[in-house]
Amino acid sequence: MPAPDLHPELRGRVYLVGAGAGCADCLTLRADAVLKASSIILYDDLIDPSILDRYDAEPVYVGKRKGRHHADQGLINEQLFEAARSPHVVARLKGGDPFIFGRGGEEMVYLLERGIEVDIVPGLSAMQTAAASCGIPLTHRGESNAVQLLNGHHLPFGVSDQTYVYYMCATRLPSLRIALLERGVEPSVPAALVSRAGFHDEAVVMTTVDDLGTDTPPSPLLAIVGRTAGMYRKRPSILYAGKRPWSCLVPGRIVPVGALRQGGKLKPGVELSLFDGIVVESVGDGREVLELFGEIPPMPRLYAYGQEAAAFLNASGVVRIIQPG
Fold first, then answer.
1. Residue 213 domain-assigned?
2. 185 φ, ψ to 5°?
3. Are residues 74 and 103 both part of a single domain?
4. Cis peptide before 220 (omega within 30 of 0)
5. φ, ψ dihedrals at 10, nearest 5°
6. pLDDT digits over 117-138, tens only?
7. Residue 285 placed within a domain
8. How many domains is the chain partitioned into structurally?
9. Dmax of the chain from CA atoms?
10. What is the DSSP letter of 4?
11. Domain boundary at 97, 128, 159, which?
12. Which helix (H) or strand (E) holds 79?
């Protein structure tokens, strides 16, 4: 078996983190874990500033409000890129949710085009928080079966310039195709069909409005229809065995091994074949993987923190060493 290779130089990983809207306790557990792992936090005006007191990361203010821009979007993009050129974790902390009128998509595209790994940590949006605070259900059986999000600064140009999200639609894709075409949505508009969203075995089928119903993904299914759906990118799935998954800089979608447990045992149907690679922090973490799965088959991407973990895993393939720190 070849000797372990030294992993090529890694760049940083940027998390676009939704802080939630309103008070600091709207922060999610995942956002809290990511901020604890971060070296730098770039934040804006729309967060509760007391959030920053909880973390050791260097805070960098990049707020911009109407009439008094501290930093324009182009400069923020550049700051994120410069921060992520070095191998550490960078958090871009945004009020609400990064992908709901938060320019998270612009920042994501800018970084991806420059080879920076980006992950999204969703947050409670102002829409959800305001509705909950006022006791107003956004959907209600027999009263409202849809929610449309609009930006007050721009009027929609046409039906193909909107994004449509449909819940529980696995058996209704042919009907959805007809309804969208009748509404005037162009047949070539992309559609992402997402099943098991957010779980370790999340699956995405990319299609177009005109081809809805050709594939039959499993239920429950969520369909995202619109030009932004075409921004989807397939990423390798990386299993992380250790205590600091949100600090991992290995490119791909990181899945902590703890997310695969249920009642102390492996969840039904979980297999190593679901993953494109494994990251192991220590010999003990390697043993945990063996206890859960029985063996580690040869894999194209096998990473270890330090020489001891690499030696333990070396029988399973060429191990790339990640320098601790």
1. yes
2. -70, 135
3. yes
4. yes
5. -100, 145
6. 999 999 999 999 988 988 989 8
7. yes
8. 3
9. 65
10. P
11. 128
12. helix 73-84
- Is the distance from CB of 140 to CB of 113 less than 8 angstroms? no
Alpha helices in 23-72 (DSSP H): 29-37
* Residues 242, 206 share a domain: no
* Gap between the Cα atoms of 239 and 187, Å rounded: 38
Task: Please give the pLDDT value at position 177.
Answer: 95
Q: What is the pLDDT of residue 71?
A: 65
pLDDT in tens, 22-58: 888 999 999 999 999 999 999 988 899 899 999 999 9
Catalytic residue list: 44, 64
| Residue 28 belongs to a domain | yes
pTM of the predicted structure, to 2 decimals: 0.89
Are residue 11 and residue 119 in the same domain, yes or no? yes
Q: How far apart are the first and last CA of the chain?
A: 27
Determine the residue type at 113.
E
Q: Which amino acid is at 262?
A: Q
Is 118 found in the same domain as 30? yes
Q: Which two tokens stand for residue 283?
A: 């010999």
Is the C-alpha dihedral spanning 218, 220, 224, 230 positive or negative? negative
Structure-token match 């609400």, residue found: 96
- What percent of the chain has a predicted confidence (pLDDT) above 90? 62
* Domain assignment of residue 183, yes or no: yes
The CA-atom distances, in angstroms, between 32 and each of 21, 25, 48, 95, 252 are 15, 10, 14, 14, 21
Last residue in a domain, options 187, 202, 231: 231
Pure H helices in 86-245: 104-112, 126-134, 173-183
Q: 224 and 243 share a domain? A: no
Full domain range(s) for residue 242: 237-322
Q: Do 241 and 227 fall into the same domain?
A: no
Q: What are the tens digits of pLDDT across the range 204-223? A: 999 999 999 998 788 889 99
What is the phi/psi pair of residue 274, to 5°? -75, -15
Question: Are 183 and 253 in the same domain?
Answer: no
Q: Report in angstroms the alpha-carbon separations of 54 from 37, 58, 324.
A: 12, 12, 24
306: left (phi over 0), alpha (psi -120 to 50) or beta: left
For 182, residues 6+ apart whose C-beta sits below 8 A from its C-beta are none
